[in-house]
């Protein structure tokens, strides 16, 4: 009979106790797994989407809002900036590449981004079918958009004003899908890209009669001087620019410069407080689980002292009894941790399925190497919880136990 | 064969007890007689390697028990000594066959299901081999603990008060079983008791004062 089988059978001779222990450990591990996966994925997404963008320039307001709207496409833009001023910055010697963005429209909640070809090289985009937009009103759509909105190359659709709902449709001009992007695993999977001219056209550059122009700063005239961008994504030419350029923008222009790295860190430190709290909560649950395993083993040891003494008379060594008890602790916590990890992934998978914002969608099927540490931690807890009972079993005086009965 | 030479033991309380020398030859059947408190259990524990005496030497098959390491002593006990306790006690989480397999593997021997079937059959318990201890009657449990004591064909089969809680009929049955099994497995039998009913069944007696 293997020690594993002996321990296993003994654990399940008290199914309720075993289940309670496993449940506690599983809950603790599940919470830790969810936190671990979620924070890793959020951090990963934040990094991936702002990978090559050193600075965002937009209208004055909250720098975090500017970053959220121009890089992650989550919040509303801070406002618009005059094209004339933006172009001055784009020609600045510190700037290697500057990508203008014009936001403000959506199609069924998918944001329509007006930009130029620099955007393609900034994100390293490739098309899976069709081509990139060229003429006005041509659109290239992200891989997820094609799937979820059922759009193919050659289809046409109307954009709606605003960022979330299809309230005021721009019925005068239909977009035509000319290409679908290959999946990029970043925010562009969930965007509709078009030329900046298309967005201007929507908002009445030419021939507008009865369209809505109700948001501030939108221009109704076809003149270059009055045209506006929402923001500029900037890549520096040299590291020197990190110190100089944002200061220059903030002090000499009416615009605001925000660094994605700084703002992401700030954002993450805000979320981090919540994550920390939950983490401690999970650690507390794990601690209670450890105590529960300990109490369980310790109590059962009292009942089993005669069992263990009999085992000794049958030839089991002290070391054997020690390992039997440790094994019970390990089996309990290992099952608990494995269930916990699976549970954590399932929870995240469900969250991902019900999540509306496609930009920050969680993936429950992703495994990371840190989960391995959770297993190790689980085994460690099992070891710690069972060590005292195991030592007691090792030390027990069988002659006394047998004589008492 | 078993020999006890100048063995004495001092309890934690300070009380000391001396045991007369004792020679037991192979396949003999002995009665160890003594009132409760006379040191019967102490002697049995010394004899089975469970309790190291303060002084003296115990040899089983020319092995000096207390010169063995703790681990070797446990293994030696598992292979050469079978013990039947007053109250039949089996591991509740394991069925009868598994309880007997446990005795084989704890003794460091390979598990042998044929041997288990054979021993259970000789005790008329083969039909209960997959039952759990709580499904058995007291008498059936007693038989299984005897089966467990002889499963590894021990040199020495020791029974500690096997009859004290049984009526006349069952006491006789258990003694018969013990004698049968020790003969069947060529084991030396030592029955410790204060039960007067047992006296007549044995002709060799070691008495404690």
Automatic annotation (TrEMBL), chain A:
It is a multi-pass membrane protein. The keyword Transport does not apply. It comes from the Bacteria. The keyword Membrane applies. Residues 19-194 form the MacB-like periplasmic core domain. Keywords: Cell membrane, Membrane, Transmembrane, Transmembrane helix. Its main location: membrane. It holds the Pfam family FtsX. Residues 281-398 form the ABC3 transporter permease C-terminal domain. It is found in: Cell membrane. The chain crosses the membrane at residues 20-38, 278-301, 321-352, 372-394. Residues 203-225 are annotated as: Disordered. This is ABC transporter permease. It comes from Pedobacter ureilyticus.
TrEMBL record, chain B:
SMART domains: AAA (SM00382). CDD domains: ABC_MJ0796_LolCDE_FtsE (cd03255). Coiled coil: none annotated. PROSITE patterns: ABC_TRANSPORTER_1, ABC_TRANSPORTER_2. GO terms for molecular function: ATP binding. Keywords: ATP-binding, Nucleotide-binding, Transport. Residues 2-207 form the ABC transporter domain. Gene3D superfamilies: P-loop containing nucleotide triphosphate hydrolases. PANTHER family: IMPORT ATP-BINDING PROTEIN. This is ABC transporter ATP-binding protein. It comes from Pedobacter ureilyticus.
């Amino acid at each position: 009979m293997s020690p594993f089988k002996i321990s296993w059978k003994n654990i399940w001779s008290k199914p309720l106790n075993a289940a309670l222990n496993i449940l506690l450990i599983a809950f603790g591990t599940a919470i830790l797994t969810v936190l671990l996966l979620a924070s890793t994925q959020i951090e990963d997404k934040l990094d991936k989407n702002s990978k090559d963008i050193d600075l965002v320039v937009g209208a004055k307001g909250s720098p975090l809002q500017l970053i959220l709207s121009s890089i992650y496409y989550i919040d509303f833009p801070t406002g618009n900036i005059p094209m004339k001023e933006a172009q001055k910055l784009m020609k600045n010697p510190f700037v290697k590449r500057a990508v203008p963005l014009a936001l403000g429209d959506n199609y069924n909640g998918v944001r329509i981004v007006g930009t130029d070809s620099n955007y393609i090289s900034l994100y390293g985009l490739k098309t899976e079918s069709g081509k990139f937009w060229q003429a006005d009103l041509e659109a290239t759509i992200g891989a997820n958009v094609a799937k979820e909105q059922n759009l193919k190359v050659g289809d046409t659709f109307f954009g709606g004003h605003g960022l979330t709902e299809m309230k005021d449709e721009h019925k005068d001009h239909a977009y035509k899908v000319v290409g679908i992007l290959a999946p990029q695993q970043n925010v562009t999977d969930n965007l509709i890209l078009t030329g900046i001219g298309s967005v201007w056209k929507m908002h009445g550059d030419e021939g507008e009669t009865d369209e809505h122009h109700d948001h501030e700063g939108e221009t109704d005239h076809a003149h270059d001087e009055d045209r506006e961008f929402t923001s500029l994504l900037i890549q520096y030419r040299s590291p020197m620019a990190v110190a100089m350029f944002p200061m220059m923008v903030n002090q000499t222009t009416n615009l605001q410069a925000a660094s994605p790295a700084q703002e992401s860190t700030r954002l993450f430190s805000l979320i981090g407080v919540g994550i920390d709290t939950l983490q401690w909560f999970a650690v507390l649950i794990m601690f209670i689980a450890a105590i529960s395993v300990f109490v369980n083993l310790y109590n059962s040891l009292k009942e089993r002292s005669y069992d263990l003494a009999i085992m000794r008379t049958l030839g089991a060594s002290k070391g054997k009894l020690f390992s039997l008890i440790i094994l019970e602790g390990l089996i309990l916590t290992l099952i608990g941790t494995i269930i916990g990890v699976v549970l954590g992934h399932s929870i995240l998978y469900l969250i991902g399925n019900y999540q509306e914002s496609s930009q920050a969608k969680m993936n429950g099927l992703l495994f990371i190497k840190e989960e391995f540490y959770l297993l190790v931690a689980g085994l460690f807890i099992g070891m710690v919880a069972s060590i005292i009972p195991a030592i007691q079993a090792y030390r027990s005086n069988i002659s006394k136990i047998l004589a008492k009965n | 064969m078993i020999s006890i030479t100048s063995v004495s033991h001092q309890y934690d309380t300070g009380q000391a007890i001396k045991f007369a020398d004792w020679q037991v030859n192979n396949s003999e059947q002995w009665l160890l007689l003594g009132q409760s408190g006379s040191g019967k259990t102490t002697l049995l524990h010394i004899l089975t390697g469970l309790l190291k005496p303060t002084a003296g030497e115990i040899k089983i098959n020319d092995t000096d028990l207390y010169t063995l390491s703790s681990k070797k002593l446990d293994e030696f006990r598992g292979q050469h000594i079978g013990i039947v306790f007053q109250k039949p006690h089996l591991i509740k989480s394991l069925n009868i066959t598994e309880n007997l397999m446990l005795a084989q593997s704890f003794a460091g021997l390979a598990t042998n299901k044929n041997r288990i079937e054979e021993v259970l059959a000789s005790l008329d318990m083969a039909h209960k081999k997959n039952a759990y201890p709580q499904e058995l009657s007291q008498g059936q449990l007693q038989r299984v603990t005897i089966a467990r004591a002889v499963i590894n064909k021990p040199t020495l089969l020791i029974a500690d008060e096997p009859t004290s809680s049984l009526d006349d009929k069952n006491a006789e049955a258990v003694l018969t079983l013990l004698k049968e099994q020790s003969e069947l497995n060529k084991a030396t039998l030592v029955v410790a008791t204060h039960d007067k009913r047992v006296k007549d069944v044995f002709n060799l007696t070691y008495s404690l004062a």
